[in-house]
User: Which sequence fits this backbone?
């Protein structure tokens, strides 16, 4: 057995654990969906806090954006910068947890946001996965800006 060092991913262990609002578990349905539907974007998706993003980054070794910094209260991007990133196809999915940016609901691209159904082509999309396991995955594209 080799010695190892680094942050522990045990539940409730501080950074990334439940005491800091994160989880060491990933929503596999969410991960499968954003991975399968990634069309070359830099980020798989965005969340409000680094503690939400960390387990996905560790599991996939891919970029997941924490739009609110470590705790979710530090807005790292302006609206204009976010629009630019969407237009440059750097990001298109945003997981907004029920405790996140002030609400859940419909999307701007024809999805009703209520049943996890993509109203444009009937493709299921995950609804949960944010802090406390509840949230909505939004897709924002250039046409919806």
Assistant:
């Amino acid at each position: 057995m080799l010695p190892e060092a680094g942050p522990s991913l045990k539940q409730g262990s501080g950074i990334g654990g439940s005491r800091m609002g994160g989880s060491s578990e990933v929503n596999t349905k969410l991960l499968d969906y954003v991975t399968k539907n990634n069309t070359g974007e830099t980020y798989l998706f965005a969340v409000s806090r680094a503690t939400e993003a960390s387990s996905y980054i560790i599991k996939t070794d891919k970029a997941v954006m924490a739009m609110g910094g470590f705790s979710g209260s530090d807005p790292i991007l302006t609206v204009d910068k976010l629009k630019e990133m969407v237009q440059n196809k750097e990001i298109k999915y945003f997981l907004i947890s029920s405790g996140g940016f002030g609400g859940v609901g419909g999307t701007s691209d024809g999805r009703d946001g209520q049943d996890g159904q993509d109203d444009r082509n009937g493709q299921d999309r995950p609804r949960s996965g944010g802090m406390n396991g509840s949230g909505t995955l939004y897709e924002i594209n250039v046409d919806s800006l």
